[in-house]
Design a protein that fits this description.
The complex is a heterodimer.
Chain A: H1 10-43
Chain B: H1 27-32, H2 37-65, H3 76-111, H4 119-127, H5 129-138, H6 157-160, H7 163-192, H8 205-236, H9 250-267, H10 270-284, H11 291-304, H12 320-332, H13 334-348, H14 357-380, H15 382-388, H16 392-422, H17 428-454, H18 469-499
The chains are: A mainly alpha, B mainly alpha.
Amino acid sequence: MIEHHHTLDTSRETAIRARNRRTGLILFSIAIVFFVGIIVKYTLLR
Amino acid sequence: MSSTAIDPIHDHHDAHGHDHAHEMPTGWRRWLLATNHKDIGTLYLFFSFAMLMEGGVLALALRTELFEPGLQIVNPELFNQFTTMHGLIMVFGAIMPAFVGFANWQVPLMIGAPDMAFARMNNFSFWLLPPAAILLTLSFFVPGGATAAGWTLYAPLSIQMGPGMDLAIFAIHIMGASSIMGSINIIVTILNMRAPGMTLMKMPMFVWTWLITAYLLIAVMPVLAGAITMMLTDRHFGTSFFNAAGGGDPVMYQHIFWFFGHPEVYIMILPAFGIVSQVIPAFARKPLFGYASMVYATSSIAILSFIVWAHHMFTTGMPVTGQLFFMYATMLIAVPTGVKVFNWIATMWKGSMTFETPMLFAIGFLFVFTFGGFTGLILAISPIDIQLQDTYYVVAHFHYVLVAGSLFAIFAGFYYWAPKWTGHMYNETRGKIHFWSSLISFNVTFFPMHFLGLAGMPRRYADYPMQFTDFHQIATVGAFWFGLSQVYFLFAIVLPCIKGGPKAADKPWEGAEGLEWTVPSPAPFHTFETPPLVR
């Protein structure tokens, strides 16, 4: 899905890009929650 | 998997004609600024092979020292640095990046996507790895040398190590970030960019296993990052998470580490299961037996992997109920794993099998990985584990699942897909030589280690009593033989296959199924710009 691809259906590509960003952000948040969570558990919640 | 029939109207996809030269950068820019999933896959695979060689040289240094009792080649401190770095480099530098390389190459091709979802992040994921590898390697040259706490970096040793430990922590942070970005990319690609008609339950098994693996990675890599961050603050900022002198708990480190570490084991084996699940049906010329049960078994293994971590810690002392829980939970994993093994066998049952190199490695995997699985089951039994903890029996066990499991599956996958990647067929005779040489030398190296362990030889020791000499010498001979087999693989198979050789057909394997075989060999720079329709 990089710029120089000649995807014929641009509306489909735009929709997929937006959905990719959303899914990616959700997954990234999960990773951050696990990272912060484990440290918080052993500092504030001991 | 149900058949992936391609709509003929959509089948004249852009793979054949839209490879405009101006779209493909050349020279160093092609690799440094790569956003193409195939190029990044290639980078990952070369990087992991380089790391395999580095980790292999460290292993051979260990085996040379262990050829005879007493100290000959390296002092015990350096020996411990070598064991630690061998483990870290093989796990984080060789096996994991190799599977990410396979994912980069194959996932878009197998689901009919034009590229990975986040092409630039993909570039960043890869280019984080070389600096991490350089940091790890350079740590040998700082005062005190590289970290020698074992790849598990247990406290309190890891809190007391010199600056080499800090470099290792930094390197693992970087590699962890790379893994997390890579797994986000893979999940998003699989969830959002499948070709029309490619429902989840029509996906090839390799894609399924990587989807599940990527979720495991996102769940556990941050936990490892948290553990080593706490270690870093213990070392430099006056905290006492793991330092008993300040009221901390070293055993807590082990709990956090293994909460990462056990799913990590499955991160390194589930994609291998996926590759084997592609190869066996192709060469048995039958669809994979029990596709749905394979998906559920993979998911079950992934879920169970989160509730078994303390089986690595039976000797740290825990209540009997705790031992029983972790023992039975661990044994439970044998059920879905058994489902997979029996499904592979059932796939081969009454198939018209041929034994090209990918199939040989897949069947070799089946035999030797299953053997490693059985020794795992033995080690899961708490009273036995208490006897065998930190002996060579454990070393033998995890090399059976990581070398004969993960690495053999990587080889199977290479031989299976290399015609698609390079456009050339590898030399079949040389492939078979590589297989038999690797299989036999692997067993010569690691089988005797079971006896050493049962007799009480501890792991991570540079010296040993006289009675262990024979088995150690056999193992050392096997190790050099195995190492040379992989050099042979590079120079007699990989490089010639890249340079030339017989032209590979678009679908070089008669029984192979899947979208990757509908594009030409070698796969053009851009594929599936117009998505294929899967029915």
